[in-house]
Amino acid sequence: MRQPVRITVNGRELEADADTRKLLVNLLRDDLELTGTHFGCGTGTCGACTVMLNGRCVKSCCVLAVDADGAELLTIEGVANDAPHPVQQALAECHGVQCGFCTPGMVLSAIELLQDNPAPSDAEIREALAGNLCRCTGYVNIVAAVQLAATRMAQGDA
Amino acid sequence: MGYIGQRIPGRNNLRLARGAGQFTADVQMPNPCFMALVRSPYAHAEIEHVDVSAAQGLPGVIDIATAAEVAQATRPFSFARPPEVEVNLADMDGKRLREYALAERWVGYSGRPVAAVVAEDPNTAAEAAERVAVQYRELPVVASAEDALKPGSPGAIPGWNDNLVFHTRYAKGDAASAIAKAPGVITGRVQVQRHVPVPLEPRAFVADYSTRTGRLTMYASTQMPHTDRSILAGALGMASEDVQVIQPDVGGGFGCKVPGSDEEVLVAFFARRLERPVRWTEERSEYFLACGHARETWFDFEAGYREDGKLLALRIDAVADIGLPFGAWVQSSVTAYCLPCGYAVDHCEVSMRSVVTNKCKWGGYRGFGKEAASFCMERIMDRIADAAGLDRVEVRLCNFIPADAFPYGQVSGALLDSGNYQGAMAKLLALVDQEAFRQEQAAARTNGRCLGLGIGFELTPEGCSMPNSDFLQGWDGATVRMDPGGRVTVLTGVTSPGSGNETGIAMIVADELGVPLDTVTVVQGDTDRCPYGLGNFSSRSLMIGGSAALAAARELREKLLSVGAKMLDADPEDLELANGEIRVAAAPAPPAADAPRNPGGPAWSVPIRRVARKIYSHAFGAETAHVEPGLESTRYFRIGNVHHQPETEGRLSFYPTWPFMAVAVVVEVDVETGFVEVLRCAAVHDCGTVVNPTLVEANTHGGIAQGLGAALYEELLHDDAAQLLTTTLMDYTLPTAVEMPAELSVAHQETPTAATPLGAKGAGESGVAGPMAAVASAVEDALGVEGLALMTLPLKPERVWRSIREVAGAVQMGETA
Asked: Do B18 and A26 touch (CB under 8 A)?
């Protein structure tokens, strides 16, 4: 069965005719070719598919595409224009990236955290990223990067 | 100053952080179709009948393959034994196992592919797979190594006379008599559980076949593109030049993305049969069921020691449950090969029985068996310390191979190239103030908190180079070319699954050619473009692939210097390459350097790009006619310290470099629940010359996270029918940012190896074993219960809670706390 879906993705209004079984992550990846959102587990555990839906982070493997009808979505492709977002820049500089598969989801969770809490402690950063698994970094440089981004965003120099 | 030794973050970081990575599942192809698999729900069964009729009628279904069709169109294969190779590691004592990508009449583990479906979209493919009706006749299941070894055990594989696939034995001295004479003797069993690597990116393959060219193009999340090409060509009966394997960005490998999987062969089979792009991305549950397990091993040990803690004699009788004998089961032999790791023992006997069961085959996993060996030895060291009433660090120091004894021949014949274990331990103890910790621990106790400190040591040999192996070899190739504009391209046979070696290799080449780092491009993972190479495993990419790139860059450097010398009218010996120019070493500082050396004479320096241009554009000129045209070199590098002639060299030694790490962890244990929290972790790592400390530390951070996961959380569990119970990330739990210690530091000691030109050893697998051992030790220290020995991982709350009560009783523990 198919059903029309109207969503706003990264500021662009889009219409798609979606299989009612289709997951939001697959709508983004297959139909809209926004492949920065990754599929890692399908059970909402790893966080590689994290996107913002109406301003809050969700695991897009746990949302049916048709349930996103009318929603506003922000994916990794929309978090910055020409210059990278401070979180992206800090992750690159702090080497908080290795294979990079978890990174887009981490970026979105970190951006959500910094919206809610511009000066988080390390423990608060770890708590906020607990829904995003990384198998490469041990999270050491990721936590450092989020701190650096927070500092720069507070100083307004990024 | 050169780049080597500098802290430089990975060159792909920003691209990946912006979501612009191109992973295999991101590769776009026109008009693709999607594969789904029918997998056996039984661990051991005969297939009586496969009925695909209900799936065939489903709209959107394009093709269904049964085992018979696959057997007709392909050849049997495995990672350990590609079709064109005669030597069969699983072909011992007449034991054979020939398997195609789909099981024909027999399944030996739950999750084994039985039939395959291709449809217009993934949901239809999945639904069609569910409609395939397979009738099985269940066979007796061998669910554990213990069962497998019992006399009269049913065979895990029909036709085999027993379940033993390989028995590895090493000995030195006379362990039995030395133990009989030893002042103290301890015995026990150390157990390492069954693990999987779990890269965040699931396996993915996308293939297309062109009838016009007769070529297959395979995009694969693989670690070894050329090996993959050999296996695919062999399995499909194609010439290898008609297969192109492209490795896009890989979202982690850790050993499990070595090639030779049923699924990949099936994707290629369908692409050729349908002449249409075929895609497959693994479900996470399929990863747990069928990608490849690792590590499940027990060690029964008997150790004789002296009052001062010196280990006099050691016997280890180990058994590994390798599941079905495919792929990377050879890890169990590596475990035996490493024992007794970094310790000198005069009398030692090691036995390792690799036993088949009806579980999934082993796949490679970071550590490749070395982590189990180190964990075993560390637990033995702690038991000796406890039995002799000695400090755990002192016992290690008194048993380490002395720093002046390298190269050191270990029991198996392994030749340990270099080491300074005492140095690493001393450096660690300087970072970890034991005295201060004991005060902190005592203070915490008065508040009812149980803190503990544990120390671990690991030896992680790298650069695996097995005799008569098509894949596990200690050589690799690289091409370095400079274009007429002076830009450099490095093409390597090694690859990166996300570990950063492309950045390290670029640094090596930039230094050798004296050019800015951002003018060097590194191309990896394309069998049409890159020189033949063996890809990524055993931490080889930087130390072997980087050495090949260094050799190729050195040839270019010589040519640039030779032409540059003519252009500057100088002796090549008086020249240097740096900052993008060739200059006379005695040149003054700018701006004077821009002036001629003497009136009307040659300049002090010339930009390298101008020399390159000259070589390309003026091949017959006075300055260039003496050199071969072009600026490209392909070189192969063979690593030192590999010995494959036991008859003449007295040994068979297949690991050239032996990095090591000493590590300390501080834990807090909740006595009421058995919950363990890791508070701090500090490590001193030694991989010889460090090309890029940022990359080595980041890799080690990840290794430590995997070691802590192994110590505390991760475990594949099966029931009595060998059904896997842990098939999601909610059952097989990885450490999150919350579980990782708030303080984690990695320091370096650099003991260079003579086996590589830069003195660099491998660094990719370090960090796993040490924390496994240190956590067990720290939990014992935290509880302070005499006789408590935590010899089995993971230390889940339940296990810790039970162990406490078994040894001490609940009431007494409450008082101690």
From this structure: no
Domain spanning B400-409+416-460+659-817 has what CATH number? 3.30.365.10
For the segment(s) A86-155, the CATH number from 1.10.150.120, 3.90.550.10, 1.10.1240.10, 3.40.50.300 is 1.10.150.120
For the stretch B508-528, pLDDT in tens is 999 999 999 999 999 999 999
AA identity, residue B307: E
Interface test with A, best of B14, B26, B200, B283 (most A CBs within 10 A): B200
Q: In the 8-state DSSP scheme, what is residue B412?
A: T
pLDDT of res. B48: 97
Verify whether the Cβ–Cβ distance A36 to B21 is below 8 Å. yes
B200–A77 CB contact, under 8 Å = no
Closest Cβ opposite residue B23 in set A101, A133, A138: A101
Report the 10 Å Cβ neighbour count for B295.
Answer: 27
- pTM of model > 0.90: yes
CB-based contact B643:B653 (threshold 8 Å) = yes
| Omega cis (within 30) before B467 | no
| pLDDT reading at B639 higher than 50 | yes
pLDDT tens digits for range B209-238: 999 999 999 999 999 999 999 999 999 999
Q: Above 60 in pLDDT, residue B680?
A: yes
Q: Give chain A's end-to-end CA distance (angstroms, integer).
A: 47
As its CATH architecture, domain B148-196+292-389 has: 2-Layer Sandwich (3.30)
Please give the full DSSP string across A92-158, using - where no structure is assigned.
Answer: HHTT--SS-SSHHHHHHHHHHHHHH-SS--HHHHHHHTTTS--SSSTTHHHHHHHHHHHHHHHHT--
Select from A25, A140, A147, A148 the residue whose CB has the most chain B CBs within 10 Å, as the one to mutate to test that interface. Answer: A140
Take residue B698 and report the two structure tokens written for it: 């980041």
- How close, in Å, is residue A70 to chain B by CA atoms? 24
Q: Looking at the complex, does the CB of residue B706 fall below 8 Å from at least one CB of chain A?
A: yes
In this prediction, residue B648 carries a pLDDT of: 75
Identify the pLDDT of residue B697.
98
CA distance B741 to chain A (A): 9
Any idea where the domains of chain A sit in the sequence?
A: 2-77, 86-155
pLDDT tens, position by position, B560-601? 999 999 999 999 999 999 999 999 988 777 767 667 777 777
Residue B647 has a CB neighbour count (10 Å cut-off) of 6
Residue of B nearest to A137 (CA): B702
Q: What pLDDT, in 10s, does the model give residues B496-505? A: 999 999 999 9
Interfacial B residues in 281-320 facing A (CB < 8 Å): 281, 283-284
Compute φ and ψ for B58, nearest 5 degrees.
Answer: -75, 125
Q: Is the dihedral of CA B521, B524, B530, B531 positive or negative?
A: positive
Distances (CA, A) of B373 to B269, B380, B402, B407, B617: 40, 11, 20, 20, 58
ipTM > 0.95 (yes/no): yes
Name the residue of chain A whose CA is nearest to B123's CA.
A21
Q: How far does B197 lie from chain A, in Å, by closest CA?
A: 9
**Statement: residue B186 has pLDDT above 90:** yes
Write out the residue limits of the CATH 3.30.365.10 domain(s) in chain B. Answer: 148-196+292-389, 400-409+416-460+659-817, 475-515+535-638
pLDDT single digits (tens) B226-271: 999 999 999 999 999 999 999 999 999 999 999 989 999 999 999 9
